Structure formats: C-alpha cells, structure tokens
Amino acid sequence: MNSQSNHLLEVRDLSVTFPQPGGSVTAVRGVNYHVDKGEFLGIVGESGSGKSVSSLAVMGLLPSSAQISGDILFEGRSLLGRSDRELSKLRGEGISIIFQDPLSALTPVYTIGAQIAEALQLHDRALSKLAANARAVELLKIVGIPNPERRAQSFPHEFSGGMRQRAMIAIAIANNPRLIIADEPTTALDVTIQAQILEVLQKAKDLTGAAVVLITHDLGVVAGNADRIAVMYAGRIVETGTVDQVFHAPTMPYTIGLLRSMPNLATAGHTRLVPLEGRPPQLSNLAPGCPFAPRCPVAIDACRTTEPPLTSIDGNPLNASACLRVEEISGGALNRAALYPVPAPIALEERAEVAPKTVLAVDQLVRHFPLTKGSVFKHSIGKVRAVDGVSFDIKSGQTLGLVGESGCGKSTTIMEILELAKPQSGQVTVNGRDVSTMSAKERRTLRQDIQVVFQDPMASLDPRLPIQDIIAEPLTVHAVPARERSRRVRDVMELVGLDPSMASRYPHEFSGGQRQRIGIARALVTDPKIVVLDEPVSALDVSIQAGVINLLEDLQEKLGLSYLFVAHDLAVVRQIADNVAVMYLGRIVESGPSSEIFDHPQHPYTRALLSAVPVPDPTLERSRQRIILQGELPSPTEDIAGCNFRTRCPLYQLMDQDGQEQCRTLDPARRQVQGSSVACHHSEHIDLMTLATSQP
Amino acid sequence: MIGFIVKRFINYAILSAIATLSAYLLASTILNPAGRYLGRNPRPSDETINSILTGLGVNPHTPVIERLWTWVVNLVTHGSLGDTIHNTTVVSEMTARAGTSLRLLILGTIIAAIVGVAIGVWGAVRQYKFSDQAISYASFTILATPSFVLGILLMILATLLNNVLGVQLINFTGEYTAGLDGGWWVQFWDRAAHLLLPTISLALMGAAGYSRYQRSAMLDVLSADYIRTARSKGRTRGSALVRHGVRVALIPMSTYFAYSFATVLAGAAVTELVFSWHGMGEMLVNAITQSDINAFTGAVLFNAVLILIAGTLSDVVYAALDPRVRV
After folding, report:
1. Which of A78, A597, B94, B99 is 20 to 30 Å apart from B228, CA to CA?
2. Coiled-coil intervals in this record (chain A) (predicted)?
3. pTM for the whole thing?
4. What is the pLDDT of residue A625?
C-alpha cells in the first residue's frame, strides 16, 4: 500500500473492534477521511455511530483491548503500531483533543494554571516553571477567562462548565498543534455558552492555524463552522461533501431523513416533522447489506444483500455517498423532498372539542431556598431565589413552552406546581380552583388531572417492573380495579404507538424512543387534562426526537390536552408550543404567542437566546448575526438591584446614562409591547442591538 | 481551615474522653479486683482486702460514680491515673511501655500504608491479570488469618532461616537481647533485628487491608476522563496514572487510614504478646486477666489518644490532598 499522503491527517480503511464476552463489537467499520492543513471538518452522527471511537483511535487513546486495523497517517507518517511513548510526544503537540464533558475532564486536585503549564512543560523540557505559568495565564486570557492571573490559581471545581471548557481549549492550543479534535465540545452546555465556546474554538483555530475536526450530533453546530462534513452511521461514513453539498443536496437517504426530522428554528412550527422510523442497528450482530436499509423508504432488494461503498457524485472526489441509488437521488429521479412521507395531521373528526378556558394559572409563584451556615447553630446567610414571582396561564388544548438556560428555575417551577401544595407565596390554580385551599383527598383526586413526563426515559422507569405495572401505577394509587386497569393500559399503549402484546416486558428491552412513549403512556393513563413535559425529548437521538414530538402533537389534538412543555431546545419549543415564556434567574422576562416571541423578540435576553441557537442551514447560518452574551448566568444567590439581566445585557451597554440608571435602580415590571409581555424598560429600543451587531 | 481542624480535634478529644470514661465504668462493673486476693493462701482478711482495694480506688463497696469522680479528680489535679495492682503508678508503667509500642505501631503503620498503596495501585492497573489475582488472593488470606497465627508462622519461617544459615540472624523474642555488650551500633542492630518480625507481621495485616481499598479507589479513577485528558496532553499512560490517577485515588484512603488504625492497634496487642514485647498491648491484655481496673483504663486512654491523633491527622491529610474540601 502506498503510504504517501499529502494530507495533514489521513484515515484509511480504519476499523476498530472491541472483543467482548458475548461476541465482539465492531464500532468503526472501514472509515476513510482526510483533513488538510487549516481545514475545518465536521463529523456528524448519532450516538453509537462510531464518531468518537474513530477520533480516539487517531489520538491513540483507545483501551488496549481494542483491535485496530487500517491506517492513520499524520503528516505522512503512520500512527498505528507506535508505542505509547512515541505517540505521547505527538499528543498535545501535533494533535490535541477537547472532550465532551468539561466537568470531569480536568483533574480535580491541580489548579487550572498548573494543568495548562503541565501541557507546556511536557513538550518543552527547557521551559521554566515560571515561564510556563506566565504562558498559562496568557492562554487563559486568549480563551476569554476574566482575571486570568487570579483564575489560574483556581481549582476546577471553582469553574463553571463553560469556563472549564475554555480551560480545556487553552490546554488544547497550548503547544500550537496542527490538528485539534473537538469531540462534542458543547453538548453538555447551554446554548448561550455553546455560542461562546464555538466562538472561542474558531478564534483558537484562526490563532494557531490548526485544522479542526469537530465531532457532533447537532447538524446546526457544524452548519455555520465547518468547511466539509462527514456523516457517520453504524460505524461507517455514509456521506461526505462540503457543507453546502451535504445540507442543500444530500444524496444519502439517512442524511436527507436526519435533516428533515430536525426541528429547525427557522422553519419549525409551520410544518409537521418527518420522523425517521426505526432505530440504529446493533453493531454486535449486523445484518448483511446496507445498515440503513431497514429504515430507508427507498430501499430496494439489492440494499439488503450488499453494503454500498462510498461512491463519488459527479466525479467529485470530495463529495461521496454510500447509497446504491445515489445517481437517482442526485440526478433528481428520486425527489428528495418526497423521499419521506410527511405524516398526515389528525383528521378533523378525531380531534377533541375543547372549550377555551384556563386550566392552569400560576400567579406570582415564589420559591426561595434558605442558604444556611454552621453545623451546630444554623443561621441563614442568604437565599437562593429559584423561583421569584412567576406568572403564566395555560388554556385548554394549548401548549405553553417554558424555556431558559439551566439554573433559571424551570424545574423548580414545575415541581412547585406538581406538588399541589400551598406555595411560599403566590397562587397556583388548577381548573379554576386554588390548590392551597384543598383538602388532602381533593388533592389526590386532582392529581389524576395533572400528570408529568420526565426527561430521562432510562432513569425515570423502574427497571424491575414490567411496563404494564409501570403504566398502571397511577391507577393503583386511585384504586381502580385490576380488570379496568389492564384494559386502560392496553388502550393507552395503543394510543402512544406501542404494541399492547409487549405489556409484560421490562424497560431495558425497549429503545430510548419507546421508553419515552412508555413514560407518556404512564402519564396519560389517568386521562389527565394537563401534562407537564419536563425536557421530554432532550435525552433522545435526533432521528428519534421527531417521532415523539409528532406523537405529542397528535395526542394533544385527539385528547384535547394542555401541555406545559419545559425545554432548553428552542427549535423543539417552536415546533410544539402555542405560547412561550422565557425564564431568566427565576423570573419570566418575556411571554407571548410563539410566533411573536420567535419572530419579533422584544427582550434582549430572548433575542440573544434565539441568536445563539445554531440553525442547520449553512447559507442562513453564515448570514446570521450572533449576539454573544458576556459571562455566565449569575448565581441566584446574588442580589442584583434593578433589572437582574443588566449584568449581561447587550442592550444595557447601548443605552444612554438615563437609560442605564433606570436599569440599575428599577426592577422592570412586565408590560405589553407589540404582541408579547416583556420585562424590560427599553424594549422600544431593541433594534439598537441589531444595528450594533451588524457593525464589525 | 485551621478552625475546621481545631473543631475536628475537639470533637475527637470529646470522643476520647467519653471512650475512656466508659471504659472505666465498664471495667468497674465487670472486673472483680477482689478475686485476686481471695484465692491467696493464706487468705487475707476482709479488712486487708478492703483497705488494699480502697487504696487503689477500686473498692466495689464505694458507689461507682464516686470512684469515677475520684479518678477524674485525681487525673485533673495530679495528672495521676491511679496505681496498678503491682504497686506502681499507671503513668510510670505507661511511660515505660509506650515507647516500645509506638516504635512498633508507627513503623508498622507507615510500612503498611506505603506497601498497601503501592500494591493496590499495581493491582488496579493490572486488573484481572495474574499479578492482580495473586495480590488479591494473598490479601484475602492474610486478612482471614488471626494475627497470632501470622506471628507464629513468621517465627517458624525465621527459625527455618536461622537453621539453614547456621547463625541467629533474626531474633524474635523480646525487644532486645538482654545483657548484650557493645557500642551504640551493636545495640541498634540488635534492636532492629528484634523489630523485624513483629513489624512485618503488623505491616502485612495493615497492607492487606489498605491494598483492597486502594485497588478499588484506583479502579474508579482509571476510567476517569481526566486521565484521558492528561494523556491527550502528551503524558504516557504510566505517567498519567501516577501524576493524575494515584494522586486522586489517595484522597479516600486518608479516611480509611483513621478507621484502620484502630484495627492495627488491636492487632498490635496480640503481636506484642506473641513476640513477648512489653508494650501497651501486653499491658491491656494483662490488665484484663488480672482484673486491674486502673491499668486497663490507662491502656484504653492510650489507645483513644492514638486514635485521636490518627483521626486528626487523616483530616489534615484529606484537606492537603483534596482542594475541594478546603474552606
């Protein structure tokens, strides 16, 4: 084999197998790709597609039990078969990597500065400790850590997630590497922090001239940043090309399906999502043929016998697709848009009649947690304002989307509502009745009407109960006879698209999407009026999400349900919500009809939040102006006088003296501006922000 | 931070005081100091026995609270722990013996900790390989062996070695050879040779326990993300494991250190008896067999103080190792 390579990194026919007692698992099956100097390659795939394993193979960081075949060439030299000592000279200096979870990626017992200095000194023995520390401070400054001299002395636990990821980037660029691999660098972070980190990554790339391989499951993240994309499925690259080729003219049905199934912030809410049925194959016993064939709407017989190779499209070596029918798709004989059938909306006669009345009203809800100190004599030293005067209402048959970053009080709000107890302050009214005045018995009856679906479908189902018992559990609480229970369980399983014959199986036998359907069935079995959905799709893979969202929409139509939909993914919220409330530090800063909020946001925070969400459309993404919020979410223990968003507000910076004075001293009350209710003194001047960001 | 350590120290001190007072009460209610004199021939008169017991402060006719009060008052005002039944003061008995025990304990604990940590890490890194399995089986065997059996086995081995070599290389009876002439150097070597077997016996017991805990702590750390980060910076696997892995895996060990010290103390009492050392362990065991309440309480106080020191030390070490608990 000719091992000459002009590319910076070339991966040739890479396969990685993990031997396991129950049969070996081949996580990567013949992957070919290359990265040139200074290039930005995005590798996209769902969990289990082999994208992380292939990058760890490049770094030589796979466990020693992994069997690797093929070849990896970096700057023309093969990396496979080299000793750990030889590879360690290259790691950090030639290739560096940024990992997904910044919370656990830094050693807890060393200071941030020491960990950066360590990376420097490992590759430059002559560097003095003092010089390394000075350079570490400089690097922290580059990645945007305020007060770098002081923060270099901090330990990882004193840093927030976003700051730790910045420190990780500082470590990665410390030795000016030629290649940076970023393995899901923003997955664990909030959107506003994600936007900051992507900006830092881009800056680091410009500064070092390094090539970047960005591995992600989020098509939106690569759309605005990458030059080329490789899409992985079941351990192989199934499509590759430039960003525009892959997004605008995808040729592999999987890519087409993935793009169609993603709720897109720019288009969501107008059309129904197109789900990608089925689930990714198990890599331990792969059937012959194309691994996507079972889910593919245009699969032909040949697809089930031979696995298609990656064939180039129109003779372009950089644009290739692993599909037998690639020519038909690229030539237009098969229409991309019609490849997947758009699910029909619920027929009119099946829709439930709903009288427009308010089913849930929350008025000035408050939940403060005391902060105490002292082990013997506890005394209060402050309070956490988790929920600080939240008001909203939901009408029957409608959906309210509650959005905000982590730590803004979304979860505390819904827990307070679900408790159906007298709140610390404020009022919760369900079906027109104030819950604080109810007796215990009335409260128990009322619980039938308000149910919840939790985020993690794996953790929220008891693994030792068959699903029929899980689903029937709310009924046992309300003393429904056994015969009636099993009938209701069957009905509700059918309703959510689960086969009732699977009722006696256990949760681990189901896939993530099915498990979330079990969670929905359990919530619906009491025939509730209101369903609280706490991040119901955020733990699911992109291709599974669409099916669950469609199901939720259909159920709402059929049963006339009202949803309180809590999520951090704004595109999903736009898809499903009629009204939206945006939360920041325990308060609702803006609320109104979905179309108003998304199209004409009036609060600077809403505007920043929306602009931080990446859109899976490269053309749109390139033309968008991003408002990067400074800093992190302040701690809810802090007492901020005036408007509590002031510390990060881009509009505040643009206001004149008097305007700023108003923000500093007066807590803005919510008022009606255009179509939405906004808590900002200066919503009328919101367009200043657009002007400011369009000036370089 | 200093405040925290001081607070913990006071906590431990209160606990030690409670332990000692409870020990006094327990011994006073269970032990029968008069029994020792009743069996004598000729049997001393009741008055004689009574006056002896009153002199020692252990007369069962005095209410136990009153005796405890006198004992505490004596301790506070005179620094006295009372007299033993051999007409020596408990304090002088303890000063004579403490050095002997401490030498054994400190050496044994330090060696146990070092060896235990080292083989624990080694076992974790080589999980399920032959060396790991061998270490595991060996540790379990030692943990399951009573300490006197271990002592006697070591003696048998030493005797075999001495016989093979034809010289008395390893001495294992007593603390030193009585009546040995020679300079400082000769004395030192003699003591070291006597120290060898009991130290090994104690260290083996400790190391077996430490290594199990260290192994599991290290296994948790092995798959940690920051080890991968350290390697991605350019450390080799071995160096990343030592610099980033062992350092973190040591943190939970410092807590275990405090708890295990109590076990080592108990083991040391038996070891002293087996090797005929006249230390605090022997004093404790003899005090029980001879129904000597004052000596018993003194020995318990000694142990309590040692555990107090070990506990405080482990808190200090924990804070030194883990920046997350520093306040």
Report:
1. A78
2. none
3. 0.83
4. 78
